[in-house]
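Q: Convert this sequence to structure tokens.
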Amino acid sequence: MSVKLPPPSPGSPRRTTQETPATQTQKSEHSNPLAKLGQGLQRVAQQVDKNVHRLVDTFEARLPGLPGQSGAGAKSWEGITLSGKPLQIPLDKLLDVDLSKVRKLLERVVPQKIRDDEAKKFTGQTQDFRETLGKVRSLGTELDMLSPKSPRYAEVKQELAKVEGELQAKYGYTRATAPKPGAMWVDPQFMAKDVPGGQVSASKLATGPAVTKPPEPLDFLFGGKPDGAKQAQAYQASVAAKRAELGMPLQDGKPIGVHMSLEGGGGKGKRYAAMLSEMRQLGVVPTSLTGTSAGSIAAAFAATGASPEQIDAIAKDPRLQKLYDVDLDFKDGGLLNGQAAYDLFDSKLRELTGIKDRPVTFADLKVPLQLVAAKAYDSASPNGFPTTKDRLFVFSQETTPDTSVALAMRASMAIPGVFEPVQMVDPTTGRSIHLTDGGSLDNLPMGYAKNNLPQIGAALLSPDSNHPSNANGAAKPLPTGQLDATNVLWNAVNGYTFLKDNATGSADFRDRTAPGPNQFMISVPTWNLENPKQADSTLGFGYDAKVDPILDGQTREVTRNFLRNFLDDMRVPGSRGANVTTDVPKNLRFQEQVMVSGQNYQVSYNGGDKLLALNTSTGKTSELKLGQKKIEAMYLDHLAFGDLKAQLAYSLSNPKSVKPDWLPF
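A:
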């Protein structure tokens, strides 16, 4: 079911968490740390386990096995799947945990101690660069203020030429081409090959003008090509034919430029390749993009001008299965190093743009792009972060034109506690910032566009995610101080604090289901609508040759239905809509025939918290107590995607979740 919405009434609630004031964190004294840790974990486990009587929305992930660990020596977590086979983690119950107690406990056991050693080393290595550049800019400013008739003019001009010559000889920059403060960021670990010995150079860290306004769709797709006009004509004819074939409301071949906002979701982001491909075929062209986490990866590749076929090839790249570069040094902030991810992004961006000898920067992209990350530490913020908005860091052509796009992608996807944070330095100022996954603060980044294009927001939907109760979360103040992202435990807790206290899920839900003017929201299911056992997962980065082709076809169909409903509205200012509904039918009742393991069942719902399943062969009736919210959410999914029979069959056959006694929640 798609919903064409009327204009929002004045005062309609939108995302407001960015302006939420924060409160200063408090430190606790040390006292019996091991005993306190045990008691704390018990309290957490009790609180999570309390009143958990049914299956609930789960965090889907696979914890990777460690290299060289197999057989009798395997670790206890190897192969555990957090997706119901055999383990389910009730995320909504985890959100009820009082994190303030956990934070106080950790402060006693392992107080936050922010490590910035690599940044400090790099800052020292680039000291001469800063000093030389500072002299050039100081003399340049002085010269600009002097009259050519001034006695000092010739002297300052000569001194400037000398110092600027030194800058160019040592580093390859001039006064005009040197990066501006805040424009270039470097992570000396991930970008070590581009800053040998900690030295910056124009040959490896280039600067240049950046695109800040969306181009026309045909210019973006075919501009500058030798036979561009011919290709553009053929493309428009193809679009017109495809629209007519599918009965689209618009049947001309004129493409529509849109701003695309892509939600984070880890491995579920594989859905974007099929979605973007189908949109391109139907003449919907992203000429401006925003992305968070997994969405930042797809958005960045699309911003290079990559074809749908190239993006699809990236989604199927076998190297995605090798992103598990395990690093068990707890002082690095993550179980995975993340160098493999950076290297993959860097090489793919070079391949797509044809830039072989240096990192691709935002200035090299063909369309405006914003990638969202979260700040844990900023050396330029001694007074901390007064509001949630201060915690956001947005890479873009306007803010960071000379920064590696691969670095921004790696920062935006740095899941706290899973991946090490990005620890980046501005070589022109020495400022240091630690960044983690932007999804903890804004996983569905709507409202970042600085243009008048219609905006399409794409969400990676998990089952049972459309219930209206998901909108009820209210943001609380976040910690204001500098936070430790370099200790794996603190990184995980701090990231989870952002997610919970900012009520990020609820804000994203409201954005997804109640779009504003000129916003159109497509929710893409990440599970098989005919077999819910098959689904993409958050940490399942690799392409599953058995499951993902099915989901690709399904994604294309969902995208076609979305455009069939809203393609014409995208040309009407102020229009808005979504392909899901949150309106639970009044006095909901239904009856469906389903088959499970060769047995026919008549499954009925007459209100309340349970389903009745009648085996039509044996006459036996069973009760399936799923809970009213679960049943209503299941039906809302059905209204959008028509998968009720499959969901009911899955519920009848799904074994009860198992929770190992060693799991600390």
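The chain has 19 helices and 18 strands.
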